[in-house]
Specification:
mainly alpha, two-stranded antiparallel ribbon, two-stranded antiparallel sheet
Length: about 325
C-alpha cells in the first residue's frame, strides 16, 4: 500500500550524506573511526615496521662487517626487504586479518569497503601506496585534513580504494541490556510473530537501528527504517497488518526476538537437574479462603477447591486496521 493510500504525507527526500547500504539494500548506521584513534593505530603499526627495518639493517651491518656478503649485495637486500616490509605489512595484514593490522586491532578498528564487505588485495594495495605519500610524505597532514573534511572520515587512500575505517569497540565496557517492549496496541501481533527466518545479522541490524535512529535526522531516519522493514518483512510471519508503521513493525520484531530468547533460557533452566540436597520441612496446609462476592468477607472453607474453570477467555482483538506499512508486493 502506497503512502498516498494511507492518507499520510509523502516522505520527504533525504538530505545529507547517504547512509551505508549493504548488497541486500539495507541501510546501516555505522560508527566510523575518529582521527585520533586512527592516528594511534598508525603509530603502533609504524613502530612495528621501523623495528623490522632496524633489525634488517642490523643484520646487514653484521653480515657486511664479517665479510659474509659483499657490501653492495647487503645494501640491495636491505632496500628490497625494506620495500617489502613497508608495503607487505599493511597489505598482508589487512587482507589476511579481514581489514585489521596489529595497530588497528589494538584500537578496535577495521577497514571495510563502502558496501560493508571485507577488503581485498586491490583495496589494500591502493590504500598502502597512497598512504605512503599522504602519511609519510607529508607527516600525515594531508590525511588529517582529508579525514576531517570528509563526512565519513575517509583519507585520500580510502576515497581512491572505496573503503572506510570503522570503530568496532565501544567505550564504557559491556553495553547495558536494552528491553524492547511491544508497541502499544500490537501486543497480540507480537505474540504471534515468527522471527525464525531472521539470522543473527538481520536481528543485530534491527536492534542497532532502533538504538541509533533517534540520533539521525528525521528524513534519514524514516528512509533507513522503511528500507530495513521492507527488506526483512518477507522473512517474518505473519505479515505486517494494515495500520502498522515501519517503526512499529521493527519494534515488534525486536520484542519478539527478546521474547523468544527469554523463553529459550527458561526452557534450558527448567531442563537442568534438580538440586539433590535435603528438602526443607513441609509447612502444614492452611485453610483455603474464598472471597464471598456478595458480602466481601473471607469465609474459611476447608474443602473448597476454587470455582469451576470456565471457558477460555477470548484473545484480545487486534486494533482496527486502517492502512499503513505493508511489505512490498
Amino acid at each position: 500500500m502506497s503512502v498516498e493510500q494511507q492518507g499520510r504525507a509523502p516522505m520527504p527526500p533525504a538530505t545529507g550524506p547517504a547512509p551505508w547500504v549493504t548488497p541486500d539494500a539495507v541501510a546501516l548506521d555505522l560508527a566510523t573511526a575518529t582521527v585520533g584513534s586512527r592516528g594511534i593505530a598508525y603509530i603502533i603499526d609504524l613502530a612495528i615496521i621501523m623495528s623490522g627495518l632496524l633489525l634488517i639493517a642490523l643484520a646487514e651491518l653484521i653480515l657486511g662487517v664479517t665479510g659474509f656478503v659483499p657490501g653492495w649485495f647487503g645494501l640491495a637486500l636491505l632496500l628490497l626487504l625494506g620495500f617489502t616490509l613497508q608495503f607487505g605489512y599493511p597489505i598482508g595484514f589487512e587482507v589476511l586479518m579481514r581489514g585489521r593490522t596489529p595497530g588497528k586491532a589494538a584500537m578496535g578498528l577495521r577497514v571495510v569497503t563502502v558496501e560493508g564487505l571485507p577488503v581485498g588485495i586491490r583495496h589494500a594495495t591502493i590504500r598502502a601506496v597512497i598512504g605512503l605519500l599522504e602519511l609519510l610524505g607529508t607527516f600525515g597532514i594531508i590525511a588529517v585534513v582529508s579525514s576531517l573534511s570528509n563526512a565519513r572520515g575517509q583519507r585520500l587512500g580510502d576515497l581512491a580504494a572505496g573503503t572506510v575505517v570503522l570503530r568496532e569497540r565501544r567505550s564504557g565496557g559491556q553495553p547495558s541490556a536494552i528491553t524492547f517492549a511491544p508497541p502499544r496496541g500490537w501486543e497480540s501481533y507480537v505474540e504471534r510473530l515468527d522471527v525464525s527466518g531472521l539470522g543473527t545479522q538481520e536481528r543485530a541490524a534491527v536492534r542497532d537501528t532502533l538504538r541509533r535512529m533517534h540520533d539521525l535526522p528525521t528524513d534519514v531516519r524514516a528512509r533507513i527504517v522503511g528500507e530495513l522493514a521492507e527488506t526483512l518483512a518477507p522473512r517474518v510471519t505473519p505479515p505486517p497488518p494494515e495500520g502498522m508503521t515501519a517503526e512499529e513493525w521493527l519494534r515488534s520484531v525486536a520484542a519478539a526476538v527478546q521474547r523468544g530468547t527469554a523463553e529459550s533460557q527458561r526452557r534450558v533452566g527448567a531442563a537442568r537437574p534438580a538440586h539433590t540436597g535435603a528438602a526443607p520441612p513441609l509447612r502444614p496446609p492452611s485453610p483455603q479462603r474464598h472471597l464471598d462476592p456478595d458480602s466481601g468477607a473471607n469465609a474459611e472453607l476447608p474443602g473448597y477447591r476454587g470455582p469451576a474453570p470456565g471457558p477460555p477467555a477470548e484473545p484480545p482483538a487486534d486494533p482496527p486496521r486502517t492502512g499503513g506499512f505493508a511489505p512490498p508486493g
